[in-house]
Amino acid sequence: MARTRRDVVDATAALLLERGWDGVTHAEVAQRAGYSKATIYTHWPTRVDLVGAAIDKICDSAEHPQPTGNLLEDLRRSLRDFAADLTDGHLDRLLAGVIERAGTSDVVKTMRNRLYDAGTGTLRSLLDEHMHPDEVEATLALLTGAVLIRVSFEGTPATDAFIDEIIHRALPGTARSNLEP
Asked: I need a labelling partner for 100 at 20 to 30 A (CA). Which of 32, 73, 93, 180 fits?
């Protein structure tokens, strides 16, 4: 069963990243993984089951920059990584699929939260170390929201200059001179 699970979840994750939620069907997963539809249905009776397993795999295998101890550089690196995940890693497609369906199921809401936590965990940890706890959520929303809007909605790259600007605006006590490379 372990090999079957690995193969099916890998196939589902690949389909989810390539085609989005609608691209994940039991028939497509069965074909890509090399198992019968009956096998897939036995262990993953719904599309939500398949997508949930794939999202867990994607989140568990995500790599993010390790903190260096320099807050500004760590924020820059983490925000660049987040922007890359939105474009190259297709996080925007994954988020769109779960956001669209989150109102219909608590299971899908959990998937949405899992994606958000996996994508912002490093940033949250950095902010937790350097800010008052009451300021972390709003600052995290300002930083990630700005990158999400820039990359996913505007279709514009989150340049280093843009990232430095949003860091300065979200952390106004930060001297601009400290943002220069």
From this structure: 32
